[in-house]
Design goal:
four-stranded antiparallel beta sheet; elongated; 12 strands; disordered C terminus; about 500 residues
């Protein structure tokens, strides 16, 4: 269909009677889609908002942990009305206001002095509560102590009148500056440190911090007089990084007795004799002038309680020594002399192994109990050798070897007379015996046989008294006289025990 100007008219679609119904359906579908999209967008928006809130909460929590770790008090923690000192609002306690006041501009990472040339003086004192163990093999002393430390903090001062007369405040030690006091002869890990106990602050700036800790310190053990020994162990404390110009380490009150023993629990093996302290200063040429490094050394003197070793080591050793003497009491015909001697020798060897496991592996000194066991073991070995000789003499055949005259005179005559033993030897009947040798040879052979047995018995008696006197002498000298001399002169202290 064309118009007058020759252009074709556009094609027109007439509306159908069903068109409104289709448009209604399309509109409903579109509305449902829009509603679903709105819900999805709303959910995403809420999720993003929740994530932002969670991130903000975590950031605030991390920020508070960071401030607590570094000793920084955030001003937002306290409302604006609590910042002034003369606050009359009762929303916060006096301790809270005081904590805000002293921690407002405090930094625990630097020394608590106003002038850089000032020195922080730290005073030390120990409270010994228990001696756990003194390991002789590893040479380590384990103690439980309270390391009392006191110093002056110029940044932690306040006027008690402004805080209702509050003169002291107890706060966590992580919030303030702490001296880096270390144990120089430490036998444990340095990373363990002290217990993070609370510190007490005074209004004049004095800080008192007594952390309890379990100390493992090296201790040079001298075992010469074991088990009657007295040991001296040192505990050397000082700063790990500051020199004497920055931090001075001193004794608590300037005296030698610097240990509190009111709560001391006694040890079953070691008896505490005394605790003293000494301050020393070492100079190191790390610059000009030489830098001093002060230290405080505590000397702990302990004495071993020897009752346990007397009953379990010394008495059994003495009884085994007596068994060594019984070897010479048994007659040679019994056949048990050598067996008894070897059994005693094995028992001494086991005792020496038990003592060796207790003592440190050192070649500087040998303990008295070790010398005693070695001596009686050598005597037991010698007794076995002499027993073999006696048995050989007892079973000697007179037809193969006649008994010499000098043995008769020495053993059957003089030695037997000393010990009060009766023998067939008699100087008055020598001529009669020589006459009998020509007339009765069988009788003379039996007489020689008896004389050889008498020689063996006289030797047994002589060895019994000889070994008995030697055992008594060794026991008295090594286990009685020398320990008494050492305890009286203090010779058991190791001379080399210095740091």
């Amino acid at each position: 269909m064309f118009t007058n100007n020759g252009f074709r008219q556009p094609y027109r679609i007439l509306p159908s009677p069903h068109q409104p119904r289709k448009m209604c359906r399309h509109n409903l579908t579109l509305l449902l889609i829009l509603c679903c999209c709105g819900k999805v967008l709303s959910a995403r928006k809420n999720s993003v908002l929740n994530d932002k809130i969670s991130d903000l909460i975590e950031f605030n929590y991390a920020n508070r942990r960071f401030n607590d770790y570094h000793g920084i008090v955030d001003a937002d923690t306290f409302p604006a009305e609590t910042a002034p000192i003369n606050d009359t609002v009762n929303n916060h306690t006096d301790e809270q206001r005081l904590l805000y006041h002293i921690m407002r501009h405090y930094d625990k990472n630097v020394r608590p002095v106003h002038a850089a040339a000032s020195t922080v003086s730290v005073r030390l004192r120990i409270t010994l509560t228990h001696i756990f163990d003194l390991d002789e093999r590893n040479q380590v002393l384990t103690t439980m102590i309270w390391l009392n430390q006191e110093w002056q903090d110029e940044l932690l001062t306040w006027n008690p009148a402004d805080f209702s007369g509050l003169r002291a405040l107890i706060i966590p030690c992580q919030s303030i500056w702490l001296p880096d006091i270390v144990l120089f002869n430490n036998a444990d890990d340095y990373n363990k440190g002290y217990m993070q106990s609370r510190a007490m602050l005074h209004h004049d700036g004095k800080v008192y911090w007594p952390p309890p800790t379990k100390m493992r310190s090296t201790c040079k053990v001298d075992v010469r007089y074991f088990p009657f020994d007295t040991q001296q162990c040192l505990m050397k404390f000082g700063s790990g990084s500051y020199d004497g110009f920055q931090m001075d380490v001193q004794m608590f009150n300037g005296t030698g007795e610097l240990a509190d023993l009111k709560h001391y629990v006694k040890n079953g093996e070691w008896e505490l004799q005394s605790i003293t302290a000494e301050r020393t200063v070492h100079y190191y040429d790390s610059g000009y002038p030489a830098h001093p490094f002060p230290h405080v050394t505590f000397k702990i003197i302990v004495r071993r309680k020897a009752l346990y070793y007397v009953y379990n080591v010394i008495f059994p050793s003495v009884m085994m020594s007596i068994l060594t003497l019984l070897v010479f009491v048994l007659p040679p015909e019994s056949g048990e002399k050598i067996a008894l001697g070897i059994s005693v020798l094995l028992a001494f060897s086991v005792s020496m192994l038990q003592i060796a496991e207790k003592l440190p592996e050192t070649s500087e000194s040998v303990p008295l109990i070790g010398i005693y066991l070695m001596t009686v073991t050598a005597m037991a070995s010698l007794s076995v050798m002499m027993t073999v000789t006696v048995i050989t003499i007892d079973w000697r055949r007179p037809e193969k070897q006649h008994i010499p005259d000098w043995i008769k005179r020495l053993v059957l005559g003089q030695i037997a007379h000393v010990f009060g033993m009766y023998t067939d030897f008699n100087s008055c009947h020598r001529k009669d015996e020589e006459a009998n040798e020509k007339v009765e040879p069988n009788f003379n052979a039996r007489s020689d046989r008896n004389q050889w047995r008498q020689v063996a018995r006289v030797m047994d008696r002589c060895l019994f008294w000889s070994f008995g006197m030697a055992t008594l002498l060794v026991t008295v000298v090594l286990l009685v006289i020398l320990p008494l001399i050492a305890s009286g002169s203090g010779a058991s202290f190791p001379v080399e025990n210095t740091l």
